[in-house]
Amino acid sequence: MDWKQEREQVLNSAKRVVVKVGSAVLTTGLGVDINIVRSLAGQLAQLHDRGTDVVLVSSGAVATGRNVLRSCCEIKGMPDKQAASAIGQSRLMHFYNEAFEEHGKLSAQILLTRDDLKSRHRFLNARNTFASLLQWRAIPIVNENDTVSVRELEFGDNDSLASLLINVVEADLYVNLTSASGVYADNPDKVANPRPLEVIEDLHDLDLDVMCGGKTSVGTGGMYSKLLAARRAAQLGVPTLILSGREPEAIVRAFSGEMLGTWICPEAKAVSRRKFWMAYNGDPSGVLVVDDGAVKALAERGKSLLPAGIVRVEGNFQRGALVRVSTGDGVIIGVGLCNYTAADLRKVLGMKSADLKDVLGDNQYPEAIHRDNLLMDVVV
């Protein structure tokens, strides 16, 4: 089927949807726009009424807290921002609770940090919690737990968090609400009247730096991070719909067949959810720099990474650590679990697998990273 048929089919049959809304949509200079919250809740309630599970990822806690503190306190650094989030989060949830209750919907708050998804045990606990809430027909409202995150923007932004949740809840559609009407072919900050895109069939064909000007000051990521999140979703075989969050009834109209926003097609071959979790929920401990032959073997022939193709090891890591795979020019092409410690790998750089035992003894893995533990084209 073509992309229009795919879009119609997915919108008509989606069983579980992750919807992300950012600060640029929710807030004004005076804090959260209650009318936007009520409109969003009403649209999601209609989607929910047709039997679709909805998971909402919402920013806005810091902006809400900042507005409360406007008359008395100056917010300077990250500790102040985290404190503002603590003040704003409960108020933001109050707005959502009231808005959803108007439509007879039960909402639930979930705050996450990267550590919650990094641990496989905690990841599965989170999955089970979401499963119970969705079984009860509740609408989970998710935000990063800014108050206890130990690094600024631990997930990077809520676009990144939403893309990881697609894997947690096993969604089959991702809707990202933005302050723009969709994705443009050119950077709207530099080109007058940029051409809107109805569809992006292959995100690999786009130069995101040119289109988006890199990361922007709108929220924490702008369109750049939205397209990176869409690339992650596409790897899971999940399409993305980027819509205006301020256009009246945009979600309802799109699900009714109106051609709003930009449809981003999924990849034809989805990666396993285990590989996705491995690649995006951990913190790489080092880098394996490989030669051109290894790049070709990995990217074009789907091979494992052998010590023979590695030219440099960066970092000090233990066996089983998550590491990045890089070209000599510094381009990250993949991530995977390494079968060797950094120290041992340095001893066998460039060596054939048959010769490894002469240096390290018997019972050595022939692969530095087995293909089953490697994700190529990782989105960083």
Topology of helices and strands:
Blueprint: H1 3-13, E1 16-21, H2 23-26, E2 27-28, E3 31-32, H3 34-49, E4 53-58, H4 61-69, H5 78-101, E5 106-112, H6 114-118, H7 120-135, E6 138-144, H8 158-169, E7 173-178, E8 183-184, E9 196-197, E10 199-200, H9 208-212, H10 222-235, E11 240-244, H11 250-255, E12 262-264, H12 273-281, E13 287-290, H13 292-301, E14 310-314, E15 322-326, E16 332-337, H14 342-347, H15 356-360, E17 374-376
Parallel strand pairs: 1-4, 1-7, 4-6, 5-6, 7-11, 10-12, 13-15
Antiparallel strand pairs: 2-3, 8-9, 11-12, 13-14, 15-16, 16-17
Describe the structure.
The chain is of the alpha/beta class. The chain has 2 domains: about 5-275, Acetylglutamate kinase-like (Carbamate kinase); about 285-375, Archaeosine Trna-guanine Transglycosylase, Chain: A, domain 4 (Roll), CATH 2.30.130.10. The chain has helices spanning about 5-15, 25, 35-50, 60-70, 80-100, 115-120, 120-135, 160-170, 210, 220-235, 250-255, 275-280, 290-300, 340-345, 355-360, and strands spanning about 15-20, 25-30, 30, 55-60, 105-110, 140-145, 175-180, 185, 195, 200, 240-245, 260-265, 285-290, 310-315, 320-325, 330-335, 375. The strands form 4 sheets. The chain has an 8-stranded mixed beta sheet with strand order 5-6-4-1-7-11-12-10, with helices on both faces. Strand 15 and strand 16 (about 330-335) form a beta hairpin. Helix 3 (about 35-50) crosses helix 5 and helix 4 packs across helix 5 (about 80-100). It is globular. The protein starts with a helix and ends with a strand. About 45% of the residues are buried. Mean pLDDT is about 90; it is low at about 215-220. Its EC number is 2.7.2.11. Belongs to the glutamate 5-kinase family. It is found in: Cytoplasm. One of its GO terms (cellular component) is cytosol. Catalyzes the transfer of a phosphate group to glutamate to form L-glutamate 5-phosphate.
